[in-house]
Each structure stands twice: as structure tokens, then as C-alpha cells.
């Protein structure tokens, strides 16, 4: 009788532990997926003083800064090289 009670008790413990709260996946990938779904429901364009920030299906969860006059970039979500930026100014001649 005691063996049966112990066996049932341990079986109940095992089942309760193994079926824990695993309904919502956690971790970086799940958070990225949630953020991607939230960002990519529709295309949003935020206007600032001299630039636009584009998010949406083409931006793929990255906030990409665009110039206002380039509607091609807003549509395609592709960033052309900005040769005037600080990343290019600080380069050595052999890096250009």
C-alpha cells in the first residue's frame, strides 16, 4: 500500500513539473518574432525635422532612417550608401 501511494505521489510530481507554464515561448527569438509581427503589421512613416523613419514589411524590424526626397527608398526599404555621413568621413583613404 505504501509503495502504491509513493508511486502515485512521484508520478503526480513528475506530471505537474513537466507540464509547467510553457504556453508562451520566452527568449530572444520569441521576443524578436513578437516585435517583428508588431512592427510589420503595416508601413508607418514617422516624420521628423529633416528625415523620415520607416518601419513596416520592408524594414524588417529595423528602423531605417531615410531622406524625405527619396520615395524609392521608402517603397523598397533599401538604404543607399550615405557618403557624407560620419562613418565615411572618418575612413582612411584606403578604406573608401
UniProtKB/TrEMBL annotation:
Q: Which domain of life is it from?
A: Bacteria
Residues covered by region (Disordered): 19-40, 69-96
Indicate the secretion signal residues.
Answer: 1-19
UniProt entry keywords in alphabetical sequence: Signal
- The name of this protein is Secreted protein
Q: Which organism is it from?
A: Sinomicrobium weinanense
